[in-house]
Structures are given as C-alpha cells and as structure tokens.
C-alpha cells in the first residue's frame, strides 16, 4: 500500500500542478449541466429527478475519460521514464493502481462540481435521494471504466493523441451498443445481438442506475470491465519490461 500511495501522490500532483485537471473539471461541469438544461429541457419537464442529467454522462465520458487517462502511460513512454519507474522496488501492479486511483480522484472532483444541480432539484421539489445516489454511483463507475480502458490503450503507445482517438472510438462503441435506436434496429432480426449490446453498453447500465435500479448485473459488469482493463495494462507493461 505504501508504494501505491507514493505513485498516487505523484500522479495526483502531476494532474493538479498544471491546468489540465482544472480545465477538464470545468468542461465536465459546464457540459453535463448545460446539456441537461438546454437539450434535456430540465426546467420545462417539471420533474424533480436527475434521470436526464445522468443519461448525458456516458456520452461525455466517451471523451472525458480518455482525456483524463491518455497521459497515464503514454507520457511515461514518451519521456522514457517507464523503465526507470519499473526498476524501482515497485511492482507494475502497484504503479497501475496508483495511477488509476489518481485519475479517479479527478473524475470524483468533476462529479462533485455538479452538486449545484442536486441543490437545485431539492429546492424545486422532493426528489428520491436513492435515485440520485444510484445515478452518481453509476456515473462514477462508468467514468472509471472509460479511464481503465484508456489506461490499457496508453500502455501501448507513446502518443497521447493516438491513445485519445483509439480510446474515444472504443468508448463510443460501448456507449452506442445499447442505445435505444440501435437496440430497436437490431431486435426484430437479431434479438440476441440487441441483448448483447445492452449487456455491454455503458449507456444502458447508466440508464438503469439513473432510474434507481442498482442491478447486480451492472455492478458486476462495470467492476469486471475495470479490473480486466487494469489487468490488461499490467500484461502490456510486463511485456515491455521483459
């Protein structure tokens, strides 16, 4: 745990010692609340819930997650410090977990920046607190999943731009897979494919949790996806180390 803490503090300082983290947090806050009020017509719905607010998050994470995670290993490769880091008495797994947790802190800070919309909902009505909690839980897990995916991609390349583009594409497919229009198109001819799309779709799992449905299926899928991507990162890093 001591080694993970060292890497965590190092990465967290790297995020917040330059404008990147602050810019990303501001963009996330403006986008999530702006889309809710403008496109989602939050005030016109006269509905004291945040369901529409959370439904925009997977689309934002499609870019936001890769933007946070693209530097995790690509920057180390570019600067030639990967080998130096791994020659220290720190296992690749400890380095991966430390870096991932630091990125998740940036994600958590971005979510905390949206608290004003929760206050607004409580002022305007009497929302279901459990739905809001499950929505935020789903949002955090989906954001963490997009960061984990980007972490694995960043272990493969020196270029942050390449990592960003590849990760955005993968996240886009995982969001789109369970989108209603896609599922409705597939279901008449290939219902099994529509069900598979829902099972792997970040949007579908977020839509369920935004309605207060904390399914074991969703929790298991998202945590497994995160664990698998981090494991894949360790395999890639170990292969480079060898």
Pick out its properties:
242 residues; mainly alpha; globular
Write the layout of secondary structure elements.
Elements lengths: L1 H15 L2 H20 L3 H4 L5 H5 L1 H13 L4 H6 L2 H6 L4 H21 L2 H10 L4 H26 L5 H17 L3 H7 L4 H10 L1 H9 L5 H26 L1
Helix pairs in contact: 1-8, 2-5, 2-8, 5-10, 5-11, 8-10, 8-15, 10-11, 10-14, 10-15, 12-13
Describe the overall structure:
It contains 15 helices and no strands. It has one domain. The protein is 81% helix and 0% strand. The radius of gyration is 19 Å and the shape is globular. The two termini are 24 Å apart. With 242 residues, the protein is mostly helical.
State the separation between the terminal residues, measured CA to CA. Answer: 24 Å
Which structural class should the secondary elements be placed in? Answer: mainly alpha
Strand content: under 5%
Number of strands: 0
* Count, helices: 15
Strand count, sense and closure of the main sheet? none
Query: Over the alpha carbons, how many angstroms does the gyration radius reach?
Result: 19 Å
Low-confidence stretches: none
* N to C succession of SSEs: HHHHHHHHHHHHHHH
The shape, in one word, is: globular
Helix content: over 70%
Q: What would a concise description of this structure say?
A:
With 242 residues, this protein is an all-alpha fold. 81% of the residues lie in helices and 0% in strands.
């Amino acid at each position: 745990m001591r080694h993970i803490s060292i890497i965590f503090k190092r990465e967290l300082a790297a995020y917040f010692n330059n404008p990147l983290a602050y810019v990303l947090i501001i963009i996330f806050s403006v986008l999530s609340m702006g889309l809710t009020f403008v496109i989602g017509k939050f005030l016109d719905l006269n509905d004291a819930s945040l369901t529409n607010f959370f439904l925009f998050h997977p689309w934002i994470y499609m870019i936001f997650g890769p933007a946070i995670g693209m530097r995790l290993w690509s920057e180390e490769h570019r600067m030639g410090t990967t080998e130096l880091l791994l020659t220290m008495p720190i296992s690749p797994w400890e380095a991966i977990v430390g870096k991932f947790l630091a990125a998740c802190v940036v994600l958590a800070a971005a979510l905390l920046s949206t608290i004003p919309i929760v206050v607004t909902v409580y002022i305007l009505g009497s929302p279901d607190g459990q739905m809001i909690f499950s929505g935020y839980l789903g949002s955090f897990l989906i954001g963490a999943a997009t960061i984990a995916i980007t972490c694995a991609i960043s272990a493969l390349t020196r270029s942050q731009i390449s990592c960003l583009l590849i990760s955005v594409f993968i996240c886009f497919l995982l969001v789109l897979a369970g989108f209603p229009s896609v599922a409705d198109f597939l279901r008449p001819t290939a219902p099994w494919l529509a069900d598979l799309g829902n099972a792997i779709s970040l949007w579908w799992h977020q839509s369920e949790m935004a309605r207060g449905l904390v399914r074991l299926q969703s929790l298991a899928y998202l945590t497994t996806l995160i664990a698998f991507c981090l494991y894949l990162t360790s395999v890639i890093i170990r292969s480079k180390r060898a």
